[in-house]
Design goal:
InterPro entries: AAA+_ATPase, ABC_transporter-like_ATP-bd, ABC_transporter-like_CS, ABCF, P-loop_NTPase
Distance between the termini: 60 Å
Oligomer: single chain
Number of strands: 19
Low-confidence stretches: 73-79, 472-478
Helix content: 40-55%
Keywords: ATP-binding, Coiled coil, Nucleotide-binding, Repeat
GO molecular function: ATP binding; ATP hydrolysis activity
Coiled coil: 165-199, 479-529
Domain ABC transporter: 3-176, 271-479
CATH class of the largest domain: Alpha Beta
Strand content: 15-25%
Mean pLDDT: 86
């Protein structure tokens, strides 16, 4: 046993973050902590790592501890990228002799190679790891247990993230079945009580056709029946009173975000790029590539850190000459660095300012993005970074845009919010192009994919969560000037062959032979670069 927590509690003011009666962590365990933003995940991690004291209870640690802290935003401004900083923290934690490692958002800013590096270290580690993460695919591949923080309570689920979701779904089904049974029984009791009342009312009424003596006899018999019915009614009331109340499980109705009339596009291809190339300084990001954005598609743009994903988005938004666009394309763009919101306005006011939909629909969308009830009246100045991102995306989803471009839309979001964004993207009837490192988001929402790899952009489709690329890496038509250059060189080569075959007295055969050999080399080099 590496760690034992007993009767630990932690609160902020009157809000309880967690209460755990007993928790033991053993060698070899891979534990993922999940929950809403501000639910207390990082605080729990710090209490277990002895970096913070719980309000009550004890934490006994029987091992040396390693820590991978979440990277503060300010470190992104150093000479290292966010991914490089995270990778350095991972290396440091696994380099020392420890039996227990705590990690807070260890996949933050990591691309696919960085995540593979982290997962390889986890696989080779003999001790236990406890990690807070919002990366579902990562939790799926690494975890043996999921710990959920919800409304101040802590729940333990064996298995990986998929197993956790299955158990949560089963809990939902069980809750629905119990609620249905409760409602059926309550209805049955109320109907029985109503029947008793009808019978009681009949006893009280003496039929008009009866004489006085008959009425007295009827009344005497009725009193006995009335007592029986009163007992029955009281028993039914007690049954109803002692029934355990079951709350109706919340199940959101399907939503579709329709485009404003006249904004829907009828072209099959909305954006087409031929010979797309980009160099930053001496570094080639991509060259001679072809891209197509299909109408109503949800296209994920993926690639390693520094491969040029955001650069490609900016080229499209600038409507550069390498691209052609369908008529009436109207972009809506979201990125972490773009400020779309007015801090002086509420959540609802910000979204309504650009909305082509009515307030009822906007409220429904905001509720889906977890802004419920009075939350829509919060000023955006009090919102967290993740909450601001959701409001910005809601603003674009209901705007008059018909092509949305999102750069890392799920950064800083908790798992519940990520799922809400997924549903919103799927519900949107327009076209979406989005950059993401979230594999699960891509598999759950994308219909198509652009991948920047080896200085080229590959296109593919996503079918049932599986990516199907073109059979060969994208090697598209060369740039126009290179085509023309090749044509001139090949024409000259044909002329040289003719002269060498039937040389005239004026021709210098050695010079022609040398030019022929030099030209062959140049043609091969040009073709290789294309």
């Amino acid at each position: 046993m590496l760690l034992e927590a007993k009767q630990i509690k932690k609160a902020i003011g009157e809000k309880q973050l967690f209460a755990i009666s007993e928790w033991q962590i053993n060698e070899g365990e891979r534990i993922g902590i999940v929950g809403r933003n501000s639910s207390g995940k990082t605080t729990l991690l710090h209490c277990l790592a002895k970096k913070e004291e719980p309000d009550e209870g004890t934490v006994m640690v029987n091992s040396k501890i390693g820590m991978i802290e979440q990277m503060p935003d300010r470190e992104e401004m150093t000479s290292f990228s966010g991914g490089e900083m995270t990778r350095k923290r991972i290396q440091s934690a696994f380099a020392i002799e420890t039996g227990l490692i705590f990690a807070d958002e260890p996949t933050s800013h990591l691309d696919a190679d960085g995540k593979n590096f982290l997962e390889k270290n986890i696989q080779q580690f003999n001790g236990a790891i406890v990690m807070v993460s919002h990366d579902r695919a990562f939790l799926d591949r690494t975890c043996t247990k999921i710990v959920e923080l919800e409304a101040g309570e802590v729940h333990f689920y064996p298995g990986n993230y998929t197993a956790y979701e299955e158990q949560k779904a089963l809990e939902q089904q069980t809750a629905q079945a119990e609620y249905d049974k409760y409602e059926k029984e309550k209805k049955h009791i109320k109907q029985a009580m109503q029947d008793v009342q009808i019978k009681t009312d009949k006893i009280r009424r003496t039929p008009k056709r009866m004489g006085n003596s008959e009425a007295r006899l009827h009344k005497m018999g009725g009193q006995q029946n009335k007592k029986k019915l009163d007992r029955t009614r009281k028993n039914l009331e007690k049954r109803l009173e002692h029934m355990e109340t079951k709350q109706k499980p919340i199940e959101a109705a399907p939503i579709q975000i329709q485009l404003e009339k006249g904004r829907d596009l009828h072209n099959q291809i909305l954006i087409s790029g031929e010979g797309v190339s980009k160099r930053v300084g001496k570094k080639v990001l991509f060259r001679n590539s072809c891209v197509q954005l299909l109408n109503h598609s949800k296209t994920a743009l993926v690639g390693a850190n520094g491969s040029g994903k955001t650069t490609l988005l900016n080229m499209i938004l600038a409507q550069g000459q390498q691209f052609s666009f369908a008529k009436n394309v109207h972009f809506g763009y979201f990125s972490q660095t773009l400020h779309l919101l007015d801090d002086s306005l509420t959540v609802l006011e910000n979204v309504m300012k650009k909305s082509v939909h009515d307030e009822t629909f906007v409220r429904m969308l905001l509720a889906r993005l977890l802004f419920k009830g009075a939350d829509v009246y919060k000023k955006v100045t009090v919102l967290s970074g993740g909450e601001r991102n959701k409001v910005s995306m809601a603003l674009l989803l209901v705007s008059d845009a018909n092509v949305l471009i999102f750069d890392e839309p799920t950064n800083y979001l908790d798992l519940a919010s990520i799922k809400a964004v997924e549903e919103a993207i799927k519900a949107y009837q327009g076209t979406v192009l989005f950059v993401t490192h979230d594999e699960q988001l891509m598999k759950n929402t994308a219909t198509h994919i652009w991948q920047i790899e080896n200085q080229s952009i590959r296109m593919g489709e996503v079918e049932r969560g599986q990516i199907i690329f073109q059979s060969e890496p994208t090697k598209e038509e060369p740039l126009q000037d290179e085509q023309e250059k090749l044509m001139v060189m090949e024409n000259r080569l044909s002329a040289l062959i003719g002269k060498l075959s039937v040389p005239s007295k004026k021709d210098n055969k050695e010079a022609l032979e040398k030019e022929y050999q030099d030209l062959l080399i140049k043609i091969r080099e040009l073709k290789a670069s294309m």
